[in-house]
């Protein structure tokens, strides 16, 4: 069989040799602090036949022209940097393209995408930590992450975690055991209490003791760039805001190229060995959604701020870091990227679970304000009572320590319909609740 070498259509980036994981190589210094500019400035992958969109490489395995080439690939001499691919559980060109975009978004040297947010978290922690190691984590984290740290890792890997109040820097410092603690883990904006992490200060504390910082930025893509503030690794549940359609499960690990390459190592790589592989068709779809992420986030945040202010005026107990009276308002303002707002998540503390349930039922079934569902980042408003849903993995004492009250309603504010239309629907449901009539 004759082998025809086709000259590739030039990319928007220069035609020099490129690192397949790199996203920052062709960015100017003035763009590096703006996620939207970084995305626009990243390598654009054209389709096989000159299409403006990239082609989908749906192959699970890849051919070579000479048998010796496979040996060199498995020895690590040839790889994606020279367009040599082994198997899509290792590197896939379409997934690699999305990964480069994620690295550009977060301002990291490299990234690679996974089948879910939890698979990204599990993989990076297992790559950094070994049996007997220790982590320090925020006491308020997503329930699935809490279960991983509290139950799964100690049982299966002998990896333990100390939970701390990340606002208490002395407590954080005391919890770090030199020589044993490998990771400080927290969420930029916590799920569900919306506590804001002082990323620069927490990174300083950790790095002074030789500890890596892993930050979950799922609640705040575009708003905050933890890696630019000092974090070593940024993880995402792409399922949420980045996808935006509540139709895809996906995750990402963004960090140093050395770490990302180690995750794909044929013998020791957590992603390679455990195989939480992203489907290239999913990667293609997600790469088409990233360019308008900034626009979507601005509208989520705009509506959340207005709703939070109006809810507060009605006398409701509102938790939203964009409000002046939120304890972390000034902190968030100091670390956000200009122009994106304060987040699309807000909480209403209704006091009791019964009252929270009644409000959510009215908002969905009476006024059509939103939907009772977990997750976030959808164009419809999604509502859940965190204590009995996304944080139910925590026991009552743990929820109390995390500040999760029984009546806490978490809202992911959507942007469907007009703002005034949705607000009228909220007021309609609230009036019915106050009247006590269902």
Automatic annotation (TrEMBL):
Pfam family, one: Cys_Met_Meta_PP
Cofactor(s) this protein requires: pyridoxal 5'-phosphate
Record keywords: Pyridoxal phosphate
Protein name: Methionine gamma-lyase
Biased composition regions of type Basic residues, renumbered to the chain: 1-10
Similarity comment: Belongs to the trans-sulfuration enzymes family.
Positions of the UniProt region annotated as Disordered: 1-35
CDD domains: CGS_like
Recorded superkingdom: Eukaryota
N6-(pyridoxal phosphate)lysine modifications at: 240
Biological source species: Castilleja foliolosa
Alphabetized GO MF terms: catalytic activity
């Amino acid at each position: 069989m004759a082998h025809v070498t086709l000259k590739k259509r030039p990319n928007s980036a220069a035609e020099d040799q490129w690192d397949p994981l790199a996203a920052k190589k062709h960015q100017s210094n003035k763009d590096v602090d703006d996620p939207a500019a970084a995305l626009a400035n990243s390598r654009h992958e054209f389709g096989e036949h000159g299409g403006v969109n990239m082609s989908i490489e749906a192959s699970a395995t890849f051919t070579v022209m000479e048998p010796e080439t496979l040996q060199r690939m498995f020895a690590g001499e040839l790889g994606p940097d020279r367009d040599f691919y082994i198997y899509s559980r290792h590197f896939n060109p379409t997934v690699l393209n999305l990964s480069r975009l994620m690295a550009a978004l977060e301002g990291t040297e490299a990234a690679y995408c996974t089948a879910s947010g939890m698979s990204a978290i599990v993989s990076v922690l297992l790559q950094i930590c070994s049996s007997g190691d220790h982590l320090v984590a925020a006491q308020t984290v997503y329930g699935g992450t809490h279960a991983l740290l509290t139950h799964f890792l100690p049982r299966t890997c002998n990896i333990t975690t100390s939970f701390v109040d990340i606002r208490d820097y002395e407590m954080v410092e005391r919890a770090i055991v030199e020589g044993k603690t490998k990771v400080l883990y927290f969420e930029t904006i916590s799920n569900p209490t919306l506590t804001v992490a002082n990323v620069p200060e927490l990174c300083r504390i950790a790095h002074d003791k030789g500890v890596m910082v892993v930050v979950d930025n799922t609640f705040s893509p575009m708003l905050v760039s933890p890696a630019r503030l000092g974090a070593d690794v940024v993880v995402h549940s792409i399922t949420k805001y980045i996808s935006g359609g509540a139709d895809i499960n996906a995750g990402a690990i963004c960090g140093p190229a050395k770490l990302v390459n180690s995750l794909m190592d044929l013998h020791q790589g957590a992603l390679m060995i455990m195989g939480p592989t992203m489907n290239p068709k999913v990667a293609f779809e997600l790469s088409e959604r990233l360019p308008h992420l900034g626009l979507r986030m601005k509208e989520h945040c705009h509506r959340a701020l207005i709703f939070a202010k109006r809810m507060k005026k009605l006398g409701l107990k509102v938790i939203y870091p964009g409000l002046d009276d939120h304890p972390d308002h000034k902190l968030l303002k100091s670390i956000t990227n200009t122009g994106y707002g304060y987040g699309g998540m807000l909480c209403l503390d209704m006091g009791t679970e019964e009252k929270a349930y009644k409000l959510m039922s009215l908002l969905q079934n009476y006024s059509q304000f939103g939907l009772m569902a977990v997750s976030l980042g959808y164009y419809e408003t999604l509502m859940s009572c965190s204590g009995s849903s996304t944080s139910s993995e925590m026991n009552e004492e743990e929820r109390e320590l995390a500040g999760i009250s029984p009546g806490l309603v978490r809202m992911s504010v959507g942007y469907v319909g007009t703002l005034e239309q949705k607000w009228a629907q909220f007021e309609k449901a609230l009036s019915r609740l106050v009247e006590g009539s269902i």
